[in-house]
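can u pls check wat happens w/ adenosine-5'-diphosphate
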Amino acid sequence: MYPGSFDPVTNGHIDVVERSLKFIDKLIISIIRHPSKKPLFTFKERFEMLTDIFSDRKNIAVEYFDGLLIDYLEKKGVYLVIRGLRAVSDFDYEFQMVLTNRKMLSTIETIFLTPREEYLYLSSSTVKEIARLRGPVEKFVPAFVADKLKEKFNEVSNY
Ligand code: ADP
């Protein structure tokens, strides 16, 4: 399972998905429906973007969860978590998450995947900032997501 906010999905997330499928048969991309930080895109929009990108991939399922990740993993009987690891900035947070989750559910293992170099500094927040300033987001996200970002910032012109 690859959990995340995906607000919105970027080429970095997609890189992690593709890498994981080199050694697992099936991946569940699981959207945290109510992340602690208020998302730009509604849960429905984030879900729609992910399903659109992976619509032709039978080995990828897009789902969502509320509450604790460990509860959802247990409910699904999934014990392998995939996370992305970019620069050192991700490390502290991810390390805390792994150890805390393991304390609550000892059967989970987490595998960290590092994307190709050009996505190492790419985050959903950066992409949103570029879109807000009307920059070329298509360099960092699939075309469908770039369109959604443009629509979003045109809708609310005072963002
Ligand atoms: P969260 O709110 O759980 O951090 P994100 O959608 O921001 O959700 O990220 C989900 C996972 O994807 C995290 O493990 C994050 O480190 C990873 N990730 C995000 N962007 C990239 C990227 N450019 N390259 C590799 N991994 C990434």
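The beta strands are 2-4, 27-32, 60-65, 80-84, 109-113.
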